[in-house]
Amino acid sequence: MSCCRTIGSPHVESFISILPVVERRLLYSLAFLIHRCICRSLTIYRRSGVPNGSGTAKAIDYALKRWQAIENYLNDGRYPIDNNPVENAIRPIALGRKNWLFMGTEQAGRRAANIMSLIASARLNDLNPWLYLKDVLTRLPTHPHSRLNELLPYYWKPAC
After folding, report:
1. What is the b/e burial string over 49-71, where b = at least 16 CB atoms within 10 angstroms of the residue's CB?
2. Could you tell me the residue range of the domain that residue 97 belongs to?
3. How many domains does one find in the chain?
4. pTM score > 0.70 for this model?
5. How many Å apart are CA 1 and CA 143, to the nearest integer?
6. Euclidean distance between the first and final Cα of the chain, in Å?
7. Which of 49, 56, 99, 157 keeps 20 to 30 A from 93, CA to CA?
8. Cβ atoms within 10 Å, residue 132
């Protein structure tokens, strides 16, 4: 499986990740052609020599079950090798989960979840959550109901 490690290794990926999407797509396409032919065959061959139930067998079976995802990753430069940005975005919520276990009522928990979703969406849209929420909550009582989508983080424009 050493042929599979080269393109996905952290050292190689740190270089590839700074390339523009078009160049990454080309690089992955070339790697994809080579790896698709060699690596899958080699992986299946090596699996035949590993005892069932062993840790190595489980790891190879895991990779083979997700082979389409591997091909998608290699074939399209838009796919990241990991989901670290998503994990970093949800970490504060995961860490606070115990603290928020007792919100008082279910309705209060739903309200808190809505506010946290707005804050996370504001951050994903490169907005300052404090300024965004302050503006939206100030404008909300007089804003026309038919145009509420204008207050969502990806459409929001600060009031003059």
Report:
1. eeeeeeeeeeebeebeeeeeebe
2. 84-151
3. 2
4. no
5. 59
6. 59
7. 157
8. 20
pLDDT tens track for 44-61: 888 899 999 999 999 999
Burial of 24 (0-12, 13-18, 19+ CB in 10 A): middle
Measured CA to CA, the distance from residue 114 to residue 56 in angstroms comes to 43
Last residue within a domain, chosen from 75, 103, 129: 75
Contact 61, 46 (CB under 8 A): no
What's the full length of the chain, in residues?
Answer: 160
Largest CA distance in the chain: 70
Runs of H (alpha helix) within the chain: 2-8, 10-16, 21-48, 55-65, 67-75, 84-96, 106-124, 129-139
User: Is there a single domain that holds both residue 61 and residue 12?
Assistant: yes
Q: Is residue 8 part of a domain?
A: yes
Question: Which residues have C-beta within 8 Å of that of residue 136, sequence separation ≥ 6?
Answer: 118, 151, 156
Give the Cα separation of 141 and 121 in Å (integer): 21
* pLDDT tens, position by position, 68-98: 887 787 777 777 778 888 788 778 777 777 6
